[in-house]
Design brief:
Elements lengths: L4 H31 L2 H13 L11 H8 L7 E3 L12 E5 L5 E7 L3 H8 L7 E2 L6 E5 L3 E6 L2 E9 L4 H11 L9 H4 L1
Length: about 190
């Protein structure tokens, strides 16, 4: 079925508006962190480390990632999206192999259901992936976006061969762990 050009452009504009709103909220959160005292920042980092239920590194174990990146150079670590620097409050988990290949798992714990609905009917430039999730979309850039309940998970395999099958296999491990995270003793 072919989508009329005007409808496709309207949908793309809607996705861009949602992404812009998300970025504005994220920037507001970053501005709030900048105004915090060093004591507040340390307390927030400490509580983030205790909150395993919202830690992206508790959704995929090191052993689960090794088939895709090889032996890990360092334990999985949290980072801010796009950063290579460990950040205990980061929303992304980095799994880095000794040979430089790496996979990142980024989690947004709220708003996933809405974004999944926004992508319904999106032009066929992205593929829909069936599985134990509400919606999943593979992008040609090497990332799988998975929506389950209110969670949105991005599994980026672009630096580990960009194989859709690899991202889907990791998603099949991750989705059942939403709400049932691994403990750190099992995820390292």
């Amino acid at each position: 079925m072919t989508m009329p050009c005007g409808r496709a452009l309207t949908m793309v504009a809607g996705v861009l508006a949602c992404a812009s709103s998300f970025a504005a909220c994220k920037n507001a959160d970053e501005s709030e962190r900048e105004r915090q005292s060093p004591f507040q920042m340390a307390e927030n980092a400490s509580s983030a480390g205790r909150g395993e239920a919202q830690d992206p590194c508790t959704l995929l174990s090191a052993e689960d990632a090794e088939p895709y990146v090889g032996a890990l150079a360092v334990a999985p670590f949290r980072a801010s999206d796009g950063s290579d620097t460990p950040d205990v409050a980061g929303e992304e988990c980095v799994y880095r192999g000794e040979d430089g290949r790496h996979v990142t798992v980024l989690v947004d714990w709220r708003g996933g259901g809405m974004m999944g609905r926004v992508l319904e009917g999106f032009p066929e430039s992205v593929g829909e992936v069936p599985g134990p999730w509400d919606k999943a979309t593979w992008t040609a850039g090497g990332a799988l976006f998975v929506y389950k309940g209110d969670a949105q998970i991005r599994i980026d395999v672009s630096a580990a061969g960009s194989r859709e099958d690899d991202a889907v296999a990791m998603a099949r491990e991750i989705v059942p762990r939403i709400g049932h995270p691994l403990s750190y003793s099992r995820s390292k």
